[in-house]
Input
Amino acid sequence: MPADLVLYNAKVATNKVPSFVDAVAIEDGKIVATGADDDIMRLRGPKTAVLDLKGRTVIPGLNDSHLHLIRGGLNYNMELRWDGVPSLADAMRMLREQARRTPPPQWVRVVGGWTEFQFAERRMPTLDEINDAAPETPVFVLHLYDRALLNGAALRTCGYTKDTPNPPGGEIQRDKRGNPTGLLIARPNAMILYATLAKGPKLAYEDQVNSTRHFMRELNRLAITSVIDAGGGFQNYPDDYQVISELAKRGELTVRIAYNLFTQHPKQEKDDFAKWVRMTRPGQGDDFYRVNGAGEMLVFSAADFEDFLEPRPDLPGSLESDLTEVVTLLAQNRWPFRLHATYDESITRFLNVFEAVNRNVPFDGLRWFFDHAETICERNIERVKALGGGIAVQDRMAFQGEYFIDRYGKKAADHSPPVRRMLAMGVPVGAGTDATRVASYNPFVSLYWLVAGKTVGGTALYPESNRLDRAEALRRYSLGSAWFSGEEDKKGSVEPGKLADLAVLSADYFSVPEEEIKGIESVLTLVGGKVVYGSGEFERLAPPPLPVSPDWSPVKVYGGGYQAQATQSPVAHQCAHPGLLHQILHALAEKVQAPASRGPVGLPCDCFAF
Output
């Protein structure tokens, strides 16, 4: 049978043997053949769409093993992203301009994805600078897991005064008169930061839908076709899943999502999971949207906070009994689970619980894994392997590695986490970002971190013995991550029978200088053989652009970060988009079988350059 689509004259990384092929044939959303150009072109029929990729590199669609897409999508259009902005001067100009554009009662929010070490000035903004940039509009700037900066307007809106007590695990910094300065500090509990952020207005429902579609489009731009959503604080199930569920029903997802359920109520965690095991089950859904399991929070007493500006927290004595109840319930109901874990000391206690539960309720192939595991020791890696678990690693160290070195020393940082040792010992490893509140969602920054072993600020973290070669790093970000949702037989490699999720890159990931890896993006992204993103010579194939709502959204001006427009003025992004050209692009998209009914996101209006 002839193929629906043939991609040829390419350098296709398969993640299998052979490592590279010239061409791929796609039919009915799946890969049907790979090989040499001449062989694959024999599958061309009268209705086959054929794309000459002119030697470009093609990779399996990237799969982030830990990304907060659902929560991030609800907020994306509200957030000013400093991801990849090269200087503090640029960042502050963006904040000043956005403050002028943002109407009451909305806030300007900078929520993760940046570090002061990326800036030429190598410093954070001061509270005086933020107040000067936005004297009237509330501003909330989140910095990693350790602090938030609020201007005077935000303090007034939140109701923080000299009489406001410090919450448990947090500090409201005060001046000599006892008045809040605007600095909120996690000591070490980040709840003060997130609870304050939650005081801000939400987008209207339709704007949340638009926001989520734009966030998926942005991920498609960066070659992401799948994620495992790790849940999150203030993300209640099923209420806060309505937008993503509606998009799934409408066929408008352009990123495949396997989601975990994250408990929201301290001391009621078992009740949460007992309710959820009656409501749904792992695997419920389809290849675009499905339940994955429990976590990354299982019980609040196991919250292993990773603020490297503060000493490692000692977890409470109730951890073992709390965690035993929940993990027993999950094992009895065959629910896969994941658990946020930073420090080896905490991981030892978690594994003690898992091993004890396993003796009474055998895991017997039940998939479970730790997230992060920056300081896990070799003995505990062995214990993870013995229990059939995996470890999902994220590039949080690329954003806070300097703080880790200052507290624990360079030698401790050499293996934080010990990725190469995990792989050598046969433990499944998936890669990701933990975006968006600490690291950026940009997977190429994470790949750079794995390959170069450096922070985004250029600090060397890892010796060669703990760095991955480019092919292995790519496998962790695709086939490796698929293990964590039990989908390694469906995606993660370019071979017959797998889902046709592919990305054509702007530069050759395998040969560019290391520093250029983090600047790569996709020029053509396919999910299930459908075009969901295109730029440059493939822009004509891209789905119709989406409007941005609300009108004051930072996304309308600056995009999502790691883009040239992030350092330009708003005037440079105002463009007309004639209706006729809109129709032509839509017709072209249909010709390559990317109908609007499948919900491809395409490019926003402000990204076109006519």
Summary: Residues 205-221 form the longest helix (17 residues). The first strand starts at residue 5 and ends at 8.
